[in-house]
Amino acid sequence: MINSNSFSIASGQVNKVEFIGKNIWATGFSFQGTEVGGLSGITYDAENKIYYAISDDRGAKAPPRFYTLKIDLSQGKLNQGGVSLIKFTTLKDENGQVFPAGLTDTEGIAIGNRDTIYITSEGNIHQLIPPFVGEFYLDSGKMIDKLSIPKKFLPSKNSPQGIRDNLAFESLTITPDKKTLFTATENALLQDGTAAKPGNSNPCRILQYNLLTNQPEKEFLYQTEPITPMLNIAGRFASGLTDLFAMDNQGKLLSLERTFHGWGFTILLFQVSLENATNIQGIDSFLSIDTQKIKPVKKKLLLDLRTINTAVDNIEGLSFGPLISDGNPSLILVSDNNFNVLQRTEILAFKIYVNEK
Q1: Which of 246, 249, 250, 193 is nearest to 224 (CA)?
Q2: In this structure, are residues 244 and 201 in contact, taking their beta carbons and an 8 Å threshold?
Q3: Where are the beta strands (DSSP E) in 156-264?
Q4: What sign does the dihedral 56-61-63-69 (CA atoms) show?
Q5: Is residue 230 predicted with pLDDT exceeding 90?
Q6: How far apart are the C-alpha atoms of 230 and 251, rounded to whole Å?
Q7: Reduced to 3 states, what is the DSSP secondary structure of residue 12?
Q8: pLDDT score for 8
Q9: Handedness of CA 282, 286, 292, 298 (dihedral sign)
């Protein structure tokens, strides 16, 4: 069933995803003195009927921040001009100070349970700045606390281990009951394998937290799809797991994979199940074990965005929105324009159809 209060799908499977419009902002678009861009994650506040979107600006354009916005789906679709910005909130550390430029790389965002927001940062391995999953006050943007990060994810100057630069905690989601948080590495840890390569699957780790104890409790193997570019004049390639969304409280997720292959983007949307997947929390490295004995999470392709007959940019974030007029859930995707004049900020809207069990 579809729960209209928490927007969870408690049973059934998604069997169709229908594109219902988009809103575009050109690079350079400004709001209240800040350049709007780098939108890497989005989350929906059902109680107040508003969204929060995180910018991955490291402080080059303005201090690290998230935006509050409204998205009009009242006509069952999203029209250009249907997204309105309300305000932005500057992030501050636990002492109430604005984060210095270069200290954070904020990527994921999820609404908490007590007027708070959770945000991930990828850190900076070159400066041995660790990633974080932090809880912040919604109104002031002040950090309350950080969740404990297992050692295997942390950069080290003494050994090749931990996250890769700009390929760490890109994703973030919290279950509808607010008891469990998920984040994941965008690519393999240094001790788990190489970074993504054309034609190869990449082993990412989903990290599960218990928000009643604020401790990590499980990890799961997530294998990205092998993408072989048909044409790559630029010779550049980047591929990975960019976001997750918890559909229920039992380990049913949506996942978003993004590949840049020099001639555009391949964006894939999956339904994911953690059921029967191996808990790999006790495995520090995949290189020293037989990974054939590990059961990865199950994936079902829902949508290849190359099929929706509209140009798609660097999509990195997703969230359910409200139920639309016919009672089906909405899905919102956002793009990170990298503050690049050749790119743009896109907000895409979809309708979700569910088969009831």
Answers
A1: 193
A2: no
A3: 173-174, 180-184, 203-210, 215-223, 238-246, 252-260
A4: negative
A5: no
A6: 35
A7: coil
A8: 56
A9: positive
Question: Which amino acid, residue 82?
Answer: G
How many of the other CB atoms lie within 10 Å of CB of 230? 7
Helix (H, G, I), strand (E, B) or coil at 306: helix
Q: Among residues of the chain, what percentage have pLDDT more than 70?
A: 95
pLDDT surpassing 60 at residue 6: no
Q: To which residue do tokens 């969204």 refer?
A: 51
Joined tokens for residue 299: 């994936």
The DSSP secondary structure of 274-302, one letter per residue, reads: -TT----TT-S-STTS-GGGS-PPEEEEE
d(CA 240, CA 166): 11
Kindly list the distances between the CA atom of residue 171 and the CA atoms of 86, 230, 254, 260, 263, in Å, as whole numbers in the listed order: 24, 28, 11, 17, 24
* pLDDT tens column, 81-121: 999 999 999 999 999 999 999 999 999 999 998 899 999 99
**Core vs surface per residue 235-272: b (16+ CB within 10 A) or e:** eebbbbbbbbbbbbeebbbbbbbbbbbeebbbbbbbbb
Do residues 191 and 182 make contact, with C-beta atoms less than 8 angstroms apart? no
pLDDT score for 5? 40
Class for the domain spanning 18-355: mainly beta
Integer CA distances (angstroms), 38 to 16, 53, 60, 205, in order: 29, 10, 11, 24
CA count, 13 A, side-chain hemisphere, 169? 33
Closest CA to 243 of 261, 222, 226: 222
pTM above 0.90?
A: yes
Helix (H) or strand (E) holding 9: strand 8-9
- In the chain, where are the structural domains located? 18-355
Average pLDDT, the chain: 94
Tens digit of pLDDT for each residue in 241-253? 999 999 999 999 9
